[in-house]
Every structure is written in structure tokens, then in C-alpha cells.
Design goal:
The chain is mainly α. It is 56% helix and 12% strand. It folds into two domains: 1-29; 31-84, no CATH class. It contains four helices and two strands, in the order H-H-H-E-H-E. Helix 4 links the parallel strand 1 and strand 2. The termini are far apart. InterPro entries: Methyltranfer_dom, SAM-dependent_MTases_sf. Pfam families: Methyltransf_31. Residues 48-84 form the Methyltransferase domain.
Length: 85
């Protein structure tokens, strides 16, 4: 098997793992229901009005939506390996 095919297989296996994890939802739900955790992240990020932000691994958009609400003048783009969450 060549290196390119190995990479494609690895990406596909990773994608399937994430999709299974999102379907179970247990860990992700615990992580994203903590308002103090979200506030700590938002306070840490050096976001300024008018910024363009790329959220890699955006998942359900939990963080992107919170940033958009707090900073409506920013452009936020989310990209994730999982097509449906």
C-alpha cells in the first residue's frame, strides 16, 4: 500500500471514530454544557471586532456560535471532518 492510500485510510478511520463518538454524545455533551468552561475559553481568546476566524474541528459549532454571539462583527468559518453531528 502506498503512502497516499495509507493517509486516506487513516483519515477515513479517524472520521469514523469521531462520527461514532458524536453519536454516543456522552463526553462531548459533558464538555459543552459547562458555562464556566466556555467563558474561560472566550475570555482567553484575543478576539477583536472585524476579525476573520477559522474554527478547525468545529464539531457542532458550540464555540463558533458563542463567538458569533459575543462578537457579531466577526466572520467565523467552521470546518470539521464529521459531516453530520
Amino acid at each position: 500500500m502506498d503512502m497516499e492510500q495509507n493517509s486516506k485510510d487513516s483519515i477515513e478511520k479517524t472520521k469514523q471514530g469521531f462520527e461514532e463518538s458524536f453519536k454516543k454524545a456522552a463526553y462531548y455533551d459533558m464538555q459543552t454544557q459547562d458555562a464556566s468552561h466556555l467563558e474561560a475559553i472566550l475570555s482567553f481568546l484575543p478576539i477583536r471586532p472585524g476579525m476573520k476566524i477559522l474554527d478547525l474541528g468545529t464539531g457542532t459549532g458550540y464555540l463558533s456560535f458563542a463567538i458569533a454571539k459575543r462578537y457579531p462583527d466577526c466572520e467565523i468559518y467552521g470546518l470539521d471532518i464529521v459531516a453530520e453531528t
